[in-house]
Amino acid sequence: MAASFRSYLAELNKNGELIEITKQTDPRDIAALVAQSEKALLFKNVVGYSMPVVAGLLQSRNRIAIGMGVPYEKIEAKLRGAMDHPIKPRRVKRAPVKDVVLTRNKVNLFDLPVPIFSLMDGGPMITGGVVIAEDPEFGMNAGMYRMMLKEKNVTGIDIVTPNNLRRFTERAMQKKKPLPISISIGAHPYEMVASTFKANLGVNELTFAGGLRGQPLQLADGETIPVPCIADAEIVLEGEILPDGWVYPEGPFCEFNRLMGGIHMNPQVRIKAIMHRKDAIYYALQMPWENIWMSAPIYEAAAWRVLHEAGVQATAINVTPGGCCHWHIVAAIKKSAGDAKNAILALLAIADIKHVIVTDDDIDVFDPTDVEWAVATRVQADRDVLIVSNARSKPLDPSLPPVSGKIPTTAKMGIDATIPENVPANRYNRIVYVNQGKLDLKNYLAGTGEAAKGGVEAKRSESLDKVSEKILAALEQSHRFYADLLEMFSRVDYRTIAAAVGQLHQEGKITQDGEGKYQVRQSEG
Description:
Blueprint: H1 5-14, E1 18-21, H2 30-36, E2 40-43, E3 53-55, H3 61-68, H4 75-84, E4 90-92, E5 100-103, E6 125-126, E7 129-135, E8 139-144, E9 147-151, E10 154-156, H5 164-174, E11 179-185, H6 189-195, H7 206-213, E12 218-220, E13 229-230, E14 235-241, E15 248-250, E16 264-266, E17 268-276, E18 282-284, H8 289-309, E19 313-319, E20 328-334, H9 339-348, E21 355-360, H10 368-378, H11 381-384, E22 385-391, E23 410-417, H12 464-477, H13 482-488, H14 494-506, E24 510-512, E25 518-520
Parallel strand pairs: 1-2, 3-18, 4-12, 20-21, 21-23
Antiparallel strand pairs: 2-3, 5-17, 6-9, 7-8, 7-11, 9-10, 10-17, 11-14, 12-13, 14-17, 15-16, 19-20, 22-23, 24-25
Helix pairs in contact: 4-7, 4-8, 6-7, 12-14
């Protein structure tokens, strides 16, 4: 069965990640309900509309993994494979999304159950649409952009940030022509993830969707515009970005940075047709977390690629949710001299990335406490912090001062949190408890049956002198930590071993080396 929005919902349901809400739900309540839910929600009975609404589909690592068909930690590799082996889309004549085709005076965007999300929203916002455009020179482009409903057949489109769609629009406006676009709402995660990739100009992101599928994505010709749409989407809007320029207020809206955005001046889109399945489901991508989680694999793939090209051996990469999966990368590497600084420079070159931390591979980059500990114990700021000024910015960074008429630049920072090359590695020996990982606390807790098992096995009784002799013989073979002796003589009770080591120490027969291991004291003279 080919991957589709419907098949994705079925997989979520099969894995217990989708809940159907049959109670009547007002569109203004959807966002608050999704924010409370640990599962995706399908609202079957939306007040005032015949079309159900689904939201929260990509709001967790697990749900993205289900959509991508692999465990979360393997998504990045699958995406890299798709980029290395792209597959061009294929045009088809039969398109499920064309069950219903509405044009001219039948176009009414307010017939769609587009919810409002936050208290300050400028109006209902289409958030989950894959926008497809074509340029005579650079070909097809796909991306995801929010679109605020303004009139029955007019929306805004947020293309403030420099991107390929903005370039297409600017090129069309120079000719005083509208730019035709299709907006496919309710597409498979393959298309959504692929379309959020920041590809170079002239690269069709939908070829990456084909690579993820392992077969061509099916596109259907437009009904009123010369631009195709995703054939098995739930809903498609056909429209034109009008050539008036960035002159219409749009917003506010909740942004991926977890803050309310302000008013953006944007173009408008005139909608010429609405197409949908006869039993269509409207997808309301919930901001900010669905947007945030969807971005992480894209930046992770870019991070692995640039580190490979820089000749740095990475072992783990975390594009952190705290950095909105846009601004922060923590990368663990197997370090040779100078690798950490090279890794920082490579990672900071990725578009939008603002802060980078590079650690050794003993650090769990997905554990904020472990990462902070690496920074606390391995960093000297004057040696290990790199700052790059006047770099390209993400305009939604609220720390940037507004600059009228242009996008400000940003400062980027990299932190080398690897073990310094001039510091002995043994200064970073971690605490590991004796028998750590070998014991189960539940076997020591009060109770009956299995939970009551555990405790201490019987130890053999040996004289103190005999045990002392055996320990001395062992130390003549090699130096040993105290725990090594406990392990070697595990059938001897703890107290006897402790007393034997103490006796040998008192007799002047043993001492400790520079690491703290016990050894036989060499006789003087």
